[in-house]
């Protein structure tokens, strides 16, 4: 019987999943939509304290292509979101998730787009940053962008944007309760990182099977260097942004 080769994308995703379980990103919970499918992840995002999203419980799906990490995944919110850089269908408009092609019309440099050194951890950190600091230069939701600018420029006196966000946050409480999740509302709770146990022993078996051969430590080194760089994530079409990634 011929040995079946495991796709390199599957190996990469299992490595990332294990890393995120052992060292979670603050403000996120990650699970597989189906235990046997590494290409579809469900993410629960906790709204950061001291922001309009405080106390929120927002769900999203990350769908990975078969040639990951050479092509970017898609990130779609399942929870209804009102945000300048989130489309009505929940798709997130963010530079890091755009294919690494030269498109002068977009206003983005190729270096601001996806490249294989990026990973799920940098995506999650980018999305958290995006929630709190929308890019309004080329919005996915024009009405939300106009409303956000009014709120920001009036220093909170124009409350329409803030009120919509708070209503969306309150509407997520029921789902958090159904999922048995306590949403952090203080900075201390939000910053606590806990190990997420595997759902069953088969996860560890799958990991062992995938990595008995040619497992390398280079990816871990890349993760650490990216985190240490302290770079901020780019948003959708950030021609005016000062933000760049370390390549």
UniProtKB/TrEMBL annotation:
The keyword RNA-binding does not apply. GO terms for molecular function: ATP binding; ubiquitin conjugating enzyme activity. Residues 238-247 have a biased composition (Basic and acidic residues). It comes from the Eukaryota. Keywords: ATP-binding, Nucleotide-binding, Transferase, Ubl conjugation pathway. Belongs to the ubiquitin-conjugating enzyme family. This is Ubiquitin-conjugating enzyme E2R 2.
